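can u pls check wat happens w/ zinc ion
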Amino acid sequence: MILLLIREPCDVDVKSARIIKPHEPLELQQLEIPKPSGVQVLVKVHSSGVCHSDIHLWEGGYEGLDGQVLKTTDRGVKYPLTPGHEIAGTIEDLGDQAEGFKKNEKVLVYPWIGEGLCPACRRGEENLCDAPRSLGIYVDGGYSEYVLVPSYKYLVNIGDDLDMDADATLSCSVLTAYGAVKNADLKPNDNVVIVGAGGLGLMAIQLAKALTGARIIAMDIDDNKLKTVKEDGGADEIVNSKKEDPVKAIMELTSNLGADAIIDFVNASKTVEADMQFLRRRARVVLVGLFGGELKLSLVSMPTRAYRLIGSYTGTINDLLELVSLAKRGVIKPLISNRFKLDQSTEALTMLKNGKITGRGVINP
Ligand SMILES: [Zn+2]
Ligand SMILES: [Zn+2]
């Protein structure tokens, strides 16, 4: 069901697909086109990636302890909201203090914006800000013809040689994979297990392959995804954890030593319980996925086995600049599998939720 507001549309209107209330179909609304002032920039959206976290925004929460729902509104999300944080487009208009960019230039938007003053922001880690203002989560994002970016400093020039649909995914899915690979601190000959061979897993495998000397073991329950990461990502080994015991399989593949690092893109109780049984002493366990649930830990094994449990959330704008340069050199090749129009936003989210999108879906407003 798509509702249009009754107000007469005029040429200064912007069409946006918005979540009015959790669980309800997104509404196509006509909003007034924002006029950028000061350092703000107005970007005409060409591509906006459809991300798993958009589903959580749409459902209004995440699974927490004892099956309790962690509400998005308790985290400061306000509805109605235009989702979309993987945004590539062209500059439409600039405020009078926005420097270094010009009209019609192709840009990627860094969406993990902070308030600029907390210790994380001051270190350049705005993605970990105490009071985040992320686009498409706390502020209206890219499921729209235009998006207002608070400052030119969140734009990355991508030039003409990159595909905008594929490039849009750099700012969340690829950035998250990159941040996780960095947090795993991989050394040559490390055995790293990548849990979840979907879009993020594939990117993490490509990045780990290109940038570290680690041996990569991909784990999933879907043979088609495992085949893709072996052929397109360069995974050294694959394990189907539905068909074989994941702990036994990893111990066999690592001469009974266990994994030096694990990056879990699912992060559900079941996957992390298995992770904790095949980690080697000193291992880094990087938890990324937002599936949720809970975990029982043996406290004494933390010091005796000296492993590190690390939460990883997206990446910095500097990481994004590095990724754009890696993409330009062909080191990573994001896969776009589905394209949608703005009025198909609900369909895009439903397909993603039902596991019907194998690579990445993008909306082209
Ligand atoms: Zn995302
Ligand atoms: Zn901050």
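The chain has eleven helices and 17 strands.
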